[in-house]
C-alpha cells in the first residue's frame, strides 16, 4: 500500500494551471524526486504536500489518512527548503532542538535526540557553534538534522543542495542518500538537476508544464524515456527523423536499421533516438554510416565528438582510454548496438 498518495492533484493560480492532475504513490521508505525544468510545477506540488499551498482539486493521503485540507502544522512533516534558513541567534544544538521543544518533548530526551541527529549528519563537534560559524554544506546538514529529529513520516526537500558548489554538492548527494537509507524516512525531493535526481532517487517523477509525464526508476527513465523532451532533458540524445519500414526496422534516409519494437505501424513517422555514449567511432567504411569529425571536446573521463554525417550531425561520447583522440577533420565510421536504439513518436519537431 502506498504511504503518500496524490490523486489527480491540481493547482490553479488564478487562471494559470501550475499543477495538472498529478497522480503519485510513494511507498514507505522510498526516495522519490520531482524533476523538471523551471516553472514545471515541482515546488507547487511539494508545497501542497507540505500544506503551505491549498489544493485546487484532487486528494492527498498520508498513511491512509486524507490530509488534503489539513493544516501544515498538523501534518508533522520534515521540511528542508533552499530558503528555509536556520535561526541565526541560536546554536546548532538549539536549532535542532527547537522542533522537539515545540512538541513538548522532555528535556532529557530532547538532549539525547539532538545528539543522535547531529551524529547522523556528522556535526556532533559543532553543537555549540552558531550558523554563521558553519560552511554552507554544514548549514544544510543542520537543516537536515532539524527536519529529521522530529522523526517525521515524510521528509520534503526542495532543492536542498542548490546553494552548494559542485564538489560539495556531489559529496552531499551521497551523504543525503546514506542518511536517508539509514533512517528510512520516506522522502520527496524537488530538483531541476537530472544527475542529482538519478543518483539519489529510487524513482523519478519527470514533470513538464504541470504534468507528471513519466514516473519510473532512474535507469528506466534514462534507457526508456517516454518522450522526446525526456530523452533530452534526462541525459543527451541523438534524434533522427525516421519512418517505420516493418516491425522493428526503421528507415533513416537511405539507411534501414533495427530498433526496439515500440508498436508503431509500418509507414509511421518516428524519431530514432540513440544516446551519445552508445555510439562507437570505428574505422571509416566499417560502421553503419561514415562521417567527419567536425569538433572534439575533452571532458576528462571522456571525449565528446561532433560528427557530420549524411543523416545530420551526431554527438559521440567515447571513453578516454589513454589513446590519442581523433583529430578534427578525421573521417570515421559510426556504429551502435541495435538494442540501444529507441523509437519515439514524431509529433514534436526535432530541435535544430
Ligand atoms: N504564488 C504564485 N502565484 C502565481 N503563479 C505562481 C505562484 N507560484 C508559482 N506560480 C506559477 O506556477 C508555475 C509552477 O511554479 P513552480 O514554482 O511550482 O515551478 P518549479 O518547477 O518549482 O520551478 P523552479 O524550478 O523555477 O522553482 C509557474 O508557471 C509559476 O510562475
TrEMBL record:
Q: Domain of life of the organism in this record? A: Bacteria
Annotated Gene Ontology cellular components are: ATP-binding cassette (ABC) transporter complex
Domain ABC transporter residues, every copy: 4-234
InterPro entries with a match to the protein in the record: AAA+_ATPase, ABC_SmlMolc_Importer, ABC_transporter-like_ATP-bd, ABC_transporter-like_CS, Mo/tungstate-bd_C_term_dom, P-loop_NTPase, Transp-assoc_OB_typ2
Cite the PROSITE patterns for this sequence: ABC_TRANSPORTER_1 (PS00211), ABC_TRANSPORTER_2 (PS50893)
- Which Pfam families did the record assign? ABC_tran (PF00005), TOBE_2 (PF08402)
Q: Which GO terms describe its biological process?
A: quaternary ammonium group transport
Alphabetized GO MF terms: ATP binding; ATP hydrolysis activity; transmembrane transporter activity
Sorted alphabetically, the keyword list is: ATP-binding, Cell membrane, Membrane, Nucleotide-binding, Transport
Cytoplasm: is it a keyword of this entry?
no
Query: What's the name of the protein?
Result: Fe3+/spermidine/putrescine ABC transporter ATP-binding protein
Amino acid at each position: 500500500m502506498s504511504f503518500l498518495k496524490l490523486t489527480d492533484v491540481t493547482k490553479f493560480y488564478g487562471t494559470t494551471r501550475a499543477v495538472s492532475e498529478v497522480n503519485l504513490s510513494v511507498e514507505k521508505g522510498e526516495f522519490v524526486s520531482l524533476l523538471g525544468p523551471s516553472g514545471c510545477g515541482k515546488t507547487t506540488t511539494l508545497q501542497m504536500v507540505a500544506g503551505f499551498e491549498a489544493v485546487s482539486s484532487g486528494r492527498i493521503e498520508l498513511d491512509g489518512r486524507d490530509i488534503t485540507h489539513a493544516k501544515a502544522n498538523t501534518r508533522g512533516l520534515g521540511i528542508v527548503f533552499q530558503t528555509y534558513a536556520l535561526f541565526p541567534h541560536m546554536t546548532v544544538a538549539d536549532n535542532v532542538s527547537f522542533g522537539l521543544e515545540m512538541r513538548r518533548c522532555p528535556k532529557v530526551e530532547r538532549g539525547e535526540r539532538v545528539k543522535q541527529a547531529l551524529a547522523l549528519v556528522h556535526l556532533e563537534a559543532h553543537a555549540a557553534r552558531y550558523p554563521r560559524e558553519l560552511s554552507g554544506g554544514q548549514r544544510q546538514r543542520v537543516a537536515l538534522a532539524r527536519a529529521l529529529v522530529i522523526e517525521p513520516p515524510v521528509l520534503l526537500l526542495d532543492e536542498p543542495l542548490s546553494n552548494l558548489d559542485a564538489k560539495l554538492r556531489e559529496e552531499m548527494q551521497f551523504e543525503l542518500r546514506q542518511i536517508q537509507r539509514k533512517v528510512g524516512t520516506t522522502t520527496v525531493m524537488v530538483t531541476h538537476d537530472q544527475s542529482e535526481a538519478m543518483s539519489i532517487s529510487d524513482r523519478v517523477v519527470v514533470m513538464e508544464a504541470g504534468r507528471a509525464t513519466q514516473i519510473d526508476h532512474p535507469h528506466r527513465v534514462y534507457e526508456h524515456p517516454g518522450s522526446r523532451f525526456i530523452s533530452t532533458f534526462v541525459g543527451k540524445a541523438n534524434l533522427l527523423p525516421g519512418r517505420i519500414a516493418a516491425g522493428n526496422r526503421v528507415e533513416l534516409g537511405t539507411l534501414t536499421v533495427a530498433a526496439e519494437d515500440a508498436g508503431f505501424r509500418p509507414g509511421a513517422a518516428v524519431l530514432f533516438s540513440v544516446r551519445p555514449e552508445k555510439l562507437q567511432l570505428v574505422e571509416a567504411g566499417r560502421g553503419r554510416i561514415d562521417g567527419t569529425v567536425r569538433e572534439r571536446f575533452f571532458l576528462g573521463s571522456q571525449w565528446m565528438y561532433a560528427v557530420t554525417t549524411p543523416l545530420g550531425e551526431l554527438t559521440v561520447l567515447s571513453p578516454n582510454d589513454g589513446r590519442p583522440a581523433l583529430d578534427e577533420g578525421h573521417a570515421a565510421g559510426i556504429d551502435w548496438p541495435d538494442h540501444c536504439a529507441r523509437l519515439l513518436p514524431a509529433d514534436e519537431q526535432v530541435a535544430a
